[in-house]
Amino acid sequence: MNQSTWQSPSNIALVKYWGKKGFQLPANPSISFTLDNCFTETTLIWDDSDPDKNLVSVYVEGIENPAFVPKAEKFFNKLIELHPLLKDFRFELQTYNTFPHSSGIASSASSMSALALCCCDMLMQMDLLEIEFYRYASFLARIGSGSACRSVYGDVAMWGEHEAFPGSSDDFAIPVNEVHPVFKTYRDTILIIHEGQKSVSSTVGHGLLKNHPFAQSRFEIANRNMHRIRKIMTRGDVPLFTELVEAEAMMLHALMMTSDPNFLLMKSGTVAAIHAIRESRAEHKHNICFTLDAGANVHMLYPEEDSVFADELLNHTLVGFCEKGRYIRDNIGRGPIRLNA
Ligand code: 2P0
Fold this sequence. Notes:
There is one protein chain. The protein is α+β, with helices and mostly antiparallel strands. The chain folds into 2 domains: 2-179, 2-Layer Sandwich (Ribosomal Protein S5, domain 2); 182-331, GHMP kinase, C-terminal domain (Alpha-Beta Plaits, 2-Layer Sandwich), CATH 3.30.70.890. The chain is built from 9 helices and 14 strands. Helix 2 (107-125) packs across helix 3 and helix 6 runs antiparallel to helix 7. The longest helix is centred in the middle third of the chain and has 21 residues, at 215-235. It is globular and about 65 Å long. It starts with a strand and ends with a strand. Ligand 2P0 binds next to helix 5.
C-alpha cells in the first residue's frame, strides 16, 4: 500500500525561534512543549504511474483545497532534490486539524511535522531512509516550517545548536529528556482572543530580523535563556520558569513592535489577559503564567496542581476576553502517532 498516515501535534515555544539564517536555519536555538489535543492527521498517498499528473493535490477535510498546494509543492520539490529517485512520483495529501485553521494556533507545526513523518514512512518503504527515522522527520519538517521540526518528539524538544544541549543542531530538533516531573504535568489552556488571519505572517516576521536594530542582543539573550531554561527544567524551578517564559513572550512581541516596518499582533484582549494572569498570581501565589505565539492568542501555562486556580481565573475573568468565549484545553503531550498498521 503506497500510503502512510500520521497524527502530529502542534507545539508551543518557551524560548522562541524568531529570525532565520541560510536555508531555513534558526538565528537562535529554541525549546518547546509538545501539545496533545491540537494536532493534524495526514495521509500521504504516493504513486509513479502517471507523471503527467500535478505534483501534489491537497484535500482538507475531504475537500480539494488548492490554497495549500504551493507550500506543499515547495516541500515536495525540495524532497525530490534530496531524493531524485522520487522524480516521477505524484503525491496526494488528505489532512484534517483538530483545531480550526483560522484559530491562530500554529497549524504549520502540526501539518508540516505530520507530512514529514509520512514522507519518512515512504522513504523507509523504498529503502531510501539512511538516517534515524525521527531525526530525518525533524529535518524534513524544518524544511516545511521551522517550528514544525520540534513537533516530531513528545514532551519537550529543542532546535538549534547550543552548548548546553549535547547533540543539538541547526538542521533538526532533538528531544529534551532531562525534565523534572513537574513539567510533564503542565497544562496549556489557549485563550482564543482573536480568530482569523493575522496581519503579518511568521515568515515575514522572521525576515524582519535581518536588519533589526536589536537582533544581535536578542540572539545573545536567547542563547543565555537556553542555558537558564535547561537548569530550570532539570531542577523543576517553577517560579523561575514563569519569569523566563513570560520574558520570552514579551521579547518576541517587542521585536515585532520594533521591526521596520513595525507591527502589533496583540489585541486589547491579549493585554487584558496578561494583566489578569499577573494580578491573580500576585494575589494567590500560584504558578500560572502566560506565553504568546506569533499572534494575539494567550497560552495559559500551569502545573496540574494549579488547575483549580486556573479554572476559576478562566471562568470568572479570562473567558470574557476570548472571541465568542472560545478557548482550547491542551497539555504537554506524548508526540506524534503513526496511524497506519
Ligand atoms: C516558535 N514561532 O519558536 C516561534 C515563536 C512563532 C513565535 O516559529 O517561516 O511557522 O515556517 O519557519 O516556524 C512561527 O514561525 O516559520 C514560529 P517558518 P514558523 O515557535
